[in-house]
Amino acid sequence: MIAEIDKDKVKYGVCVVLWSLLASYFGQPLIHGNQDAINVIVTVFSILAGFLVAVITLVGDPKSLPSGSWQVARLGSDLTYNRLIRHKWLFKGYLITLFLIFASIVAKNRFPTTQVVLEYVYMFFAAISSFLSFKLPSALMELQKERIEHEIEERRKNEGVDE
């Protein structure tokens, strides 16, 4: 079966890439030789990576699967897997950014041209990761809303209340 392409997600992805290219182009001269700015980026992405591990733990909790038969749980697991995959790629974006910053610092004295190229690349990944991170609070709210609705539905079933 061929999955239908979500045109809004494709548009969003193209916009994120284009904005990230602009951020990289205009941001690199601002961070070149600016150790304070680099430290802020490293600190923010380290914190975000830790936060995302907690989010992945919440999303992957088997208790969040819908109750009922194994078929119902299986259908619910597809949504969970998709969320986990998106969060995994965001986490990798954070790690790639941090690794590229490290490589840029290592290359600074010996390979100054390589350092500049790495700065453009890590600014690109930092921008993509930042833009995608803005969707995290909404994703968490949606997850918690689903869990609350699921709990309400379970309590209604247990008390024999029909909708």
Task: Explain briefly what this protein structure is.
With 163 residues, the protein is mainly alpha-helical. Helix content is 82%, strand content 0%.
Please explain how this structure is put together.
The model has no long low-confidence stretch (mean pLDDT 85). It contains five helices and no strands. It is elongated, with a radius of gyration of 21 Å. The protein has helices at 7-31, 35-59, 70-107, 112-133, 136-158. The two termini are 34 Å apart.
Highlighted features:
single chain; 163 residues; mainly alpha; 5 helices; 82% helix; elongated
Q: What level of helicity do the residues show?
A: over 70%
What's the total count of β strands?
0
Order of helices and strands: HHHHH
The shape, in one word, is elongated
Distance between the termini: 34 Å
- Low-confidence blocks of residues: none
Largest sheet: none
Structural class per helix/strand content?
mainly alpha
Oligomer: single chain
What's the alpha carbon Rg, rounded to whole Å? Answer: 21 Å
Q: Counting H and I runs of at least 4 residues, what is the number of helices?
A: 5
Strand content: under 5%
Mean pLDDT: 85
Task: Describe the protein's topology.
Blueprint: H1 7-31, H2 35-59, H3 70-107, H4 112-133, H5 136-158
